[in-house]
Structure formats: structure tokens, C-alpha cells
Amino acid sequence: MADGEAFTAQAVEESCVLVNTRDIASYWGVEDVEQIMAAEQMMAAEAYMQRFQESPSAWEVCEQLLNSEHVATMLFAVQTLRAKVADSFDELPAEAVLPFRDAMLVHRTKHREDGRAVVTQLCVSVADIAVQCEAWDDPVGDLFRAFSQSEGMVPCLVELLIKLPEESRNPRLRVPSSRRPLFASAISTYFEHVRAAPRPCLRRRMHTPSPRC
């Protein structure tokens, strides 16, 4: 990444749209992709996006891009954030960790009706934050209290409770070994509370690998 290079939400979204247009053209069998845009322009967009993903600016800009109207842009943003949380969590200043967590929880609520890939990536990102953030004292209890108050949010809670134990065993995450076992017992306790709720949608979600409510 060049020193002092500026990354903005608008520039990243424009690059994402260019690259996605190239992918759509290839999918539909358009052999001469240059009919859609110059190859040099696409290569520049891809290089720009890669530099952006590696930059500290990606945290803030991708959080903004989660408000995009374009699903491809949202997916790029959440995939970038998931990778940042997993591989570069220490880039976030200590004072920014909990506000970032809160923002991701808001997005998880907001995007529960969006594309399945976006929703899943958000769940994994929240789970990875919970596993790594030692300042988050009771992540399982907080998630339970936040997502169990409304029947419409229970599927979000169940997916998070499923992702948390999976991610607590993820060797990619930099987590003290003493913190990983904490999730198993806490999740088991809260999951029983959720399981007891008489919600047909919840029951389908708990017994179906890739459900849609």
C-alpha cells in the first residue's frame, strides 16, 4: 500500500461495481470483456481493492459500505471485515473495539432479510469478535438478551449461538487458550433457554442446515 493513499467508501464501491460487472460478464459467456470496460481499468480496480483490504482504513470504510444498496458491495464489505477481525483484530485501537462490536450488532439486526451470504458473514464476524474481545465480559448473555426479546430476532440468536462454538475452536483466531472453553458451557445454558421457546420458525432453524424463515 502506498503511503498516504486515501480510501473512500465511494471509490471502493465504484471499484467493487466494476469488478462485479466483469464477473457477471464472464458468467454469462461474454468473451470480450473489454466490450464492457477496459481490461486496464478492471485490473486497476482489483489492485485498488486489494490494497484497500490490507489497509487500516478498511475497518471504517467497510462499516459504511454495509449500508450500500448493492448486494455485491455489501458482500465485499462484510467479507473484508470478517478477514480483518480474524487476521488483524489488533489493528483496532482498544477504545474502538466495543463501538465496532456495537456497529456490527446493529448491522446484523438490520440485514437479517438480506442475502444469505451477507447474513452468515455478519454472524461469523460477530462470533469472532466475541471470541477475541476480552473486554466483552459476557458475550453469550449479551447476545441472548439482545436477540431474544423479539420472535423475529430469534433466528439471528440461534445462528449466533451456532457460530460461537465453531469460532471458539477456530485456530486462525488469536485467542488465549483459557478463553476458548468459556463459550461451551455458557452457550449450552442459553441454548437450552432458546430451545424451550415454542416458536415454529425456531424449531425449523434448529433442525435444518440452511433454513430460511
Short description:
Helix content is 66%, strand content 0%. The protein is mainly α.
Low-pLDDT residue spans: 24-31, 200-213
Radius of gyration: 19 Å
- Characterize the overall form: globular
Roughly how many Å apart are the termini? 42 Å
* Largest sheet properties: none
Number of self-contained structural domains: 2
Please give the share of residues in helix: 55-70%
Order of helices and strands: HHHHHHHHHH
Structural class: mainly alpha
Describe it.
The chain is mainly α and 213 residues long. The protein has two domains: 7-55; 66-207, no CATH class. The chain is built from ten helices and no strands. The chain has helices at 9-27, 39-54, 58-65, 71-87, 94-110, 116-132, 139-147, 154-168, 181-195, 200-207. Helix 1 packs across helix 2 (39-54). The radius of gyration is 19 Å and the shape is globular. 31% of the residues are buried. Residues 24-31 and 200-213 have low confidence and may be disordered.
